[in-house]
Design goal:
With 309 residues, the chain is an alpha/beta fold. The chain has twelve helices and nine strands. The chain binds aspartic acid (ASP). Aspartic acid binds next to helix 6.
């Protein structure tokens, strides 16, 4: 089986079959990651450049590890300290890197659509590691794998996506994925942080009351307040946000059933999640990080097979 696409630009472009294939392959790679020797030769002779024009901790380390576990040759680029700060265009930077014979590009950029632009101009396979407020496909895939492991399936699972939906590429990729895979979704947050068109675009229910969303769901995927992506004041203070939308241990314990807590990281402890919730045994935040490596191995492996097909 192969993917229907040459690039991984967004979940929007994937079929349900593509998503299942990536998740199944990731499960196989997870077994490899449990072995004493965690390395397979699958991407030997494949050269991958990691282009990070925007800060990242988890995603960058996770891609680098995934590439190493697959025996790829890798080059890392971060915008600070590069010629980007001297005014070089995105296409010039990338063309220079490609003339060094690179097969795949993993890219994070603060501009929505940047990886789609590159895909039109260069022959390498492109993986979007987060573009502006658009998509973060590998995050949605690792979230899906984590939900599947915990709840056995995605079909019919009730997921509440909570917080700053408006500025979150994680929310958008999750919405596409959960819709395609038959999960039920509610988005919850202050009205100023939920785009108006959302319920028509994705057919999801919007719930402004946090308690109601939590009482309904099996899984709460809690998002970070993306202060760096907001250019106007959309809520009065972080303290007030925490009072209305922060999840505390007391709130969690008062729900009719135990729910699963997820967060893509980095967590603003004491804002969207209290520390004792993030650290509780209902939280699968560290399993998400662990699954990130396997999911990225799967995506890289399947795209490289597609390139050679
Ligand atoms: N790490 C995720 C992202 O890159 C989530 C976040 O930054 O809040 O979008």
């Amino acid at each position: 089986m192969t993917l229907s696409t040459r690039h991984l630009l967004g979940i929007k472009d994937l079929t349900a079959q593509d998503i299942s294939l990536i998740l199944q392959t990731a499960q196989e790679f997870k077994e490899v990651l449990q072995r004493p020797i965690k390395k397979v030769p699958s991407l030997r002779d494949v050269t991958i450049v990691n282009l990070f024009f925007e800060n990242s901790t988890r995603t960058r380390i996770s891609f680098e590890l995934a590439e190493k576990r697959l025996s790829a040759d890798t080059v890392n680029f971060t915008a600070s300290g590069s010629s980007v700060s001297k005014g070089e265009t995105l296409l010039d930077t990338v063309n220079n890197i490609l003339s060094m014979k690179v097969d795949m590009v993993v890219m994070r950029h603060s501009a929505s659509g940047a990886p789609h632009f590159l895909a039109k101009h260069i022959p390498a396979a492109i993986i979007n590691a987060g573009d502006g407020i658009n998509e973060h496909p590998t995050q949605a895939l690792l979230d899906a794998l984590s939900i599947k492991e915990k709840h056995g399936t995605l079909e019919g699972v009730k997921v509440a996506i909570i917080g700053d939906i408006m500025h979150s590429r994680v929310a958008q990729s999750n919405l596409y994925l959960l819709n395609k895979m038959g999960a039920e979704v509610v988005v919850c947050g202050p009205p100023t942080l939920i785009p108006k068109h959302l319920s028509e675009a994705f057919g999801v229910r919007v719930e402004y009351n946090l308690r109601k969303a939590l009482e309904w769901c099996d899984v709460a995927n809690v998002l970070r307040i993306q202060l760096e992506r907001q250019n106007e004041v959309l809520f009065s203070s972080l303290r007030e946000y925490n009072l209305a939308y922060g999840i505390s241990r007391r709130l969690l314990d008062s729900l009719p059933k135990p729910i699963t807590i997820m967060h893509p990281g980095p967590i603003n402890r004491g804002v969207e999640l209290d520390s004792d919730v993030a650290n509780s045994d209902q939280s699968i935040i560290l399993q998400q990080v662990e699954n990130g490596v396997a999911v990225r191995m799967a995506a890289l492996y399947l795209l490289s097979n597609r390139q050679n097909a």
